[in-house]
Every structure is written in structure tokens, then in C-alpha cells.
What does this fold into?
Amino acid sequence: MSAATAPVQKDLYSPLELFATDRLLDADERDIAATVRKFVDTKLRPNVGDWFESATLPKELGREFGALGLLGMHLQGYGCAGTNAVSYGLACMELEAGDSGFRSFVSVQGSLSMFSIYRYGSEEQKNEWLPRLATGEAIGCFGLTEPDFGSNPAGMRTRARRDGRDWVLDGTKMWITNGNLADVATVWARTGDGDGDISGFLVPTDTRVSPPTSSTRSCRCAPR
It folds into this structure.
């Protein structure tokens, strides 16, 4: 055994652990997986049937996900946990085992909403939104998908035009995970006719927008 290999414990083996991948994880990674698994079993599973039927997820769960450090957990600074990619993947796997909607909520918040701000936002935007999104005080969504072209940016019809110092967005998005809970939306729109003329806009949801009008029979615990 090399010095970098975590010791294997007998209780890590079970009929469900067919490939014994737990032996490849370090202690912190196993602890994160176990913590999320316990949260799923005690807090989420008992309620998933009701939330599925009503196509809702209580917004206050965002703060509980935040308290566990799950929101934007792979990002550094701004109140984020700064874990590695393996830990993030394990957390998402455990959430997915409870319901795909739970994993969708967390991964859309962290990988789409928060990461787009983290990677492309101004320092002012990062400081305004990332700490609140990391704690679950605020919920974010990612407005890419459209009725006519799905998630294909090449077919995007939403347009953005200048109006003095402001931008005016005109278009339709649908199937936006977290959309009817979100406090801020990263909305993608065309600013011109060239291939690269697409920009993302941070839109607080108290801005005048139309409410969601459709539902699905999948991921119903990830409101859209």
C-alpha cells in the first residue's frame, strides 16, 4: 500500500459497493458522502413523494443545503466550501440516490448559476451574489433552454438590446430548473447576429418577467 492510499475498513464493503471504490477515497471524501447520505435518508426521502406530486421543493431547503456546504462547494472563496471535484461528485451521487430533483437543485445552483458568476461576473457581482447563494439565502437559476431549440445556443432567439445604460431582454425560456424559486437568473441572450454575439445577464427575479407555465413528469422536485 502506498503512503497516499487511504486505509480500507471492512465496513466499507457491501453488496451495493460492487467495485469497492470507497477504498480509493480519502477520509474527508468518505465523510462528505456519509453526511449527505444521512441527510437524504432522514430529511429528504420521507418527503419526496409529496414534493414529487406537488412539483414543489420548499425554498427553506436551500439554507439546509447551504449549511451542509453543498452549494458551490467546488468553488474557492466567497463563502464556498472549496472542496475537490471528487467530493462534489460524491455529494451529487448521494443526492441523486434520493431523487434526481435534489441533485438538480444543487448542481444548477453551484455549477450553472454560481459558476457563471464566479467565472464571468464582475467583482461587484461576485460579492453581491456568491455569498448569499452559497448559504442558500438566495437561489439561482440558469436561463438557457428555449421552446424552439432546447439548450442549443446556436438556435437561441432571446435578444438583448441597449436602451441607454440599460439592457432590454426579449424572449422565452422554459424548463429552467429552480426557475420558480430563484432570486437571480443568469439569462443568456443574443446581442447581435454573429456566432459569438451571446451574453449572459444577471436578472434579479423581482424584475418584470412572466411566470412559469409548464411542468414535467421528471425532476418534479426541482421546480421549474
Observations:
- The longest strand covers residues 184-190.
- Helices lie at 27-44, 48-54, 61-67, 85-98, 100-120, 123-135.
